[in-house]
Specification:
The complex is a heterodimer of chains A (about 400) and B (about 325). Chain A is α/β, with parallel strands linked by helices and about 400 residues long. Chain A is built from 16 helices and twelve strands. Chain A has helices at about 10-15, 20-30, 85-90, 115-120, 145-155, 160-175, 180-185, 195-205, 225-240, 250-255, 275-280, 285-290, 335, 360-370, 375-380, 390-405, and strands spanning about 40-50, 55-70, 70-75, 100-105, 110, 130, 210-215, 245-250, 260-265, 270-275, 345, 350. In chain A, α6 (about 160-175) crosses α8, α8 packs parallel to α9 and α10 packs across α16. With about 325 residues, chain B is mainly alpha-helical. Chain B has two domains: about 1-75, no CATH class; about 90-305, MetI-like (MetI-like fold, Orthogonal Bundle). The chains are: A alpha/beta (about 400), B mainly alpha (about 325). The interface between A and B is medium-sized, with 33 and 27 residues. Bound molecules: adenosine-5'-triphosphate, iron/sulfur cluster and magnesium ion.
């Protein structure tokens, strides 16, 4: 895993507001002076709301991040936290008259949000590509694999049919599809799930994109295939120096393969840090809960996040104050009233919490809640993992995954 | 594949047997005695003669015997003779009338498809916008206007006002050539086609709306492909399965059900002849035409099934 400390993820608005001396320090540490121009994608206050009869579904509600060339960002969160909507917003794929997107996403100086799709068509498939969650549904069942791999090559690169075919077969080989020539003539249903996802990856890589958005690319696949596909993605990403946003349920997936991780809850990023820092110095109680929900046993690489106690928030009428407060074991009166501001700790470790994990205040909040018998707190306290030091666990997971990644 | 075809053909034969038998029973349930119709009021007075005619026609045999007799000759291509117009072979009647009606039906369907596919696609593509609302309103109107009203309007407009086309009659290709034939065929075909177009475009629109939400359509967009290309290349075929079904069903219905339009335009079609035979209790003709239509229905459905596998390669395997 190259360049763990050289992470590129910054919340820009935040950093500028902060004490200039601190910014200077952290920049020096990260070696990121004047590297703003390296940013491939800068997302600021991105929102996507859906108008439904019951009200506004705030699926993505103010997300900011930036991503450097060749970097990988993992986006993690429970089901319904807005990960898919976020990646689709970047691709302008949320269709329908009830969709309201705002904010900004600048890709190489070009605005992606609030722009007519027609104006972005020369980017899609060429500079920005997407791999979808379910390879069973993301390939057209009535169109041959070959056409699906070549159609945008021909469009974007203006090559002849024969050249496109040649390129496509090379691509299919490079994603390790055996008998690429005959697969070229096949229909998707003639391929296995893993093969289809390889085809999807070949399609996404076809025009040499600078940014790949991968929305849970392996969730629909079985365990061994998941591993192969993830390694294939990582290898291709390295070879092509392509930036990637890897969306997933699966903490194991991001732990081994990303530079940075953003944890999403109810349409917001609640904590974001370099992968190493996030696992070793978790600050947000939600991230902590995610970590805690990983089973101790082996094979955690492929474990879906176990449910965290309590229900995911209502996105139409979210809880007041901190959105995690109804489920948070540390919640204090302040949490129910005031939304916590985004805080940037050392080295661009961002989180929004009034009582961050690892602080004295957090410990005091825990003791108070335990004494008062707050059910969410008691549940954690009596749970089987209550004694585990969550930081030690994070470090252990990270070490584990980094080695297993290196061994592949 | 060969075995599959064999199974399908066997099923086809079984269906045809059931259908012909049922239509045989239905026709014999018609009130009124064909013998009476043949002999007229005077002949009925003569009991002997009546019995004689009834025996000749086999009307006194049990229905199953009549069916087996009929089936035996039908299989050898003999559908019997008209009771009323003696000497007229039922198979000749059909051979004479079917080309006319079939041409009308095919033209109506083609016109309907030419109108319906773009309108349906537009409605789905611009779902909820004014283009969709306007086309839906147009479709609603087209659905609620009966064929013959459209026909009358066309006659008034194209024949009376503009004097472009003959108002009625039918020119056979064999007699007058294709051009004269089309001149008489186009108006009734349009009158029939408009309703079909409305039905088809509704289907295309609703199937297309569903298809456009499919992940593979999003994936095609994410590749930067143009909307027109996506609609034509990625969305149309998967949205055509119910359309294919309805085309099959409606084609069959058009073959037997164009009486009103045939009457309006004085077209010597199948439906016209069928109604005629019914009013005369000309059972052999009724039976022949009914069975013919039933066979066409079944065969068309068979073809539609085959066509599915052209539309969707996944069906080819099962
Ligand atoms: N078109 C839409 N209209 C209304 N609500 C929507 C629409 N699309 C998504 N949502 C809602 O937005 C929220 C976020 O959905 P999203 O699919 O982004 O979650 P996710 O984090 O990707 O979850 P998962 O892990 O299950 O894929 C969900 O509550 C979903 O119901
Ligand atoms: S702000 Fe309060 S409720 Fe929210 S995560 Fe932090 S401690 Fe929990
Ligand atoms: Mg999702």
């Amino acid at each position: 895993m190259p360049g763990i400390r050289n992470f590129t993820l910054v919340i820009r608005g935040e950093r500028r507001e902060r004490d200039p001396s601190m910014t200077a320090t952290s920049s020096a540490i990260g070696g990121r002076l004047n590297r703003d121009s390296d940013d491939l994608l800068v997302v600021e206050d991105l929102k996507t709301h859906f108008e439904v009869p019951a009200g506004m579904v705030k699926a993505v509600d103010g997300v900011s991040f930036s991503l450097g060339r060749g970097r990988t960002l993992g986006v993690v969160g429970e089901s319904g936290s807005g990960k898919t909507v976020l990646s689709r917003t970047l691709m302008n794929l949320n269709l329908g008259s009830n969709v309201h997107s705002s904010g900004s996403a600048i890709f190489e100086g070009r605005q992606l949000v609030g722009v007519k799709p027609k104006q972005l068509r020369d980017l899609w498939g060429l500079d920005i590509a997407m791999v979808f969650q379910d390879p069973m549904t993301s390939l057209n069942p009535v169109v041959k694999v070959g056409r699906q791999v070549t159609e945008h090559i021909r469009k974007h690169l203006g090559v002849s049919k024969a050249e496109a075919r040649e390129t496509a077969i090379q691509l299919l080989r490079s994603v390790r599809i055996p008998e690429a020539e005959s697969r070229f003539e096949a229909y998707p249903h003639e391929l296995s799930g893993g093969m289809r996802q390889r085809v999807s990856i070949a399609i996404a890589l076809a025009c040499g994109p600078k940014l790949l958005l991968a929305d849970e690319p392996t969730t629909a696949l079985d365990v061994t295939v998941q591993h192969q596909i993830l390694n294939l993605l990582a290898q291709q990403r390295r070879e092509r120096n392509m930036a990637m946003v890897l969306v997933t349920h699966d903490l194991g997936v991001v732990a081994g393969r990303t530079d940075e991780i953003a944890v999403m809850y109810a349409g917001r990023i609640v904590e974001k840090a370099s992968t190493k820092v996030l696992f070793s110095d978790v600050r947000h109680p939600y991230t902590e809960a995610l970590l805690r929900s990983i089973p101790k046993t082996s094979n955690r690489n492929h474990t879906r996040l176990a449910a965290i106690a309590g229900r995911p928030p209502d996105l139409i009428n979210p809880p007041s104050g901190c959105k995690f407060s109804p489920r948070c074991p540390y919640a204090q009166p302040k949490c129910f009233e005031e939304e916590p501001p985004e805080v940037n700790a050392f080295e661009d470790h961002l989180f929004s919490c009034h009582y961050p994990v690892g602080t004295e205040e957090n410990k005091a909040a825990w003791d108070r809640n335990l004494a008062a018998g707050r059910p969410e707190t008691v549940a954690v306290a009596t749970g089987s993992v209550s004694e585990v030091d969550i930081r030690a666990k994070g470090e252990e997971i990270l070490a584990d995954l980094t080695t297993s990644e290196g061994a592949d | 594949m060969a075995r599959l075809m064999l199974v399908r053909v066997a099923r086809l034969v079984a269906t045809l047997l059931v259908v012909t038998f049922l239509s045989f029973i239905m026709t014999s349930l018609l009130p009124g005695d064909p013998a009476v119709a043949i002999l007229g009021q005077d002949g009925v007075q003569n009991e002997e003669l009546l019995r004689q005619v009834q025996d000749d026609l086999g009307l006194n045999d049990p229905i199953i015997v009549r069916y087996v007799n009929w089936l035996g000759s039908a299989l050898s291509g003999d559908l019997g003779e008209s009771y009323i117009n003696s000497g007229q072979e039922v198979s000749d009647v059909i051979a004479d009338r079917v080309p006319v009606t079939a041409q009308l039906a095919v033209m109506a369907i083609v016109i309907a498809l030419i109108l319906a596919i773009p309108v349906g696609i537009l409605g789905a593509y611009k779902q909820g916008r004014w283009q969709d609302k306007a086309s839906s309103a147009g479709v609603q109107v087209a659905l609620s206007v009966p064929n013959f009203i459209t026909g009358i309007f066309l006659i008034w407009f194209l024949s009376v006002k503009l004097d472009l086309l003959p108002a009625s009659n039918w020119n056979r290709i064999s007699n007058k050539g294709i051009w004269a034939n089309l001149q008489t065929a186009i108006m009734p075909a349009m009158a029939l086609g408009l309703t079909q177009a409305a039905i088809f475009s509704r289907l295309v629109r609703s199937d297309m709306v569903a298809t456009l939400k499919e992940n593979y359509v999003l994936a095609a967009r994410a590749k930067g492909l143009g909307d027109g290309y996506i609609l034509a290349r990625h969305a149309l075929r998967p949205s055509s399965l119910s359309l294919a079904t309805i085309i099959g069903i409606n084609f069959g219905a058009l073959l037997g059900g164009t009486v009103v339009i045939e009457t309006l335009f004085a077209i010597p079609g199948l439906g016209f002849r069928l109604i005629n035979a019914i009013s005369q209790r000309d059972i052999m003709v009724i039976q022949g035409i009914t069975v013919f239509l039933a066979v066409v229905y079944v065969v068309i459905n068979f073809l539609v099934d085959l066509f599915y596998s052209v539309l969707d390669p996944r069906i080819r395997r099962n």
